[in-house]
Give the backbone structure.
Amino acid sequence: MDINIGIPNDQRQAIADGLSRLLADTYTLYLKTHNYHWNVTGPMFNTLHLMFETQYNELALAVDLVAERIRALGYPAPGTYAAYSKLSSIKEEEGVPKAQDMIRNLVEGQEAVVRTARSIFPLVDAASDEPTADLLTQRMQIHEKNAWMLRSMLE
């Protein structure tokens, strides 16, 4: 059945493509944050263990919101590690970094998600796609706050 929500197919496709990159970044950051939660050590163990848990739980909910918006626009949401690896601006790493490096890596990851979300706005604005704009605004606000909180631990 055709989708008629007031956004032409080509604009919906472009927005869904952008959201697919956002989904890939979000899922990759989720996995990295969860990995760090399991493997963090050192004097800040308890603080970081709990902070990372809070963040990966929020990311787990976020991937569903992004994927469902892609589906509402009429396109399949990517859902494999292979797809995420191609789409994500966040790279995986080998080994287990020290706690301070984990924090730095997560700041970079949080900021990468913000940049990806921000890059979709011109498409969303041109299509008057307010639901996606609302989703992007919420995601950016959360990731900017997380980056700030993590960054403050490095000072």
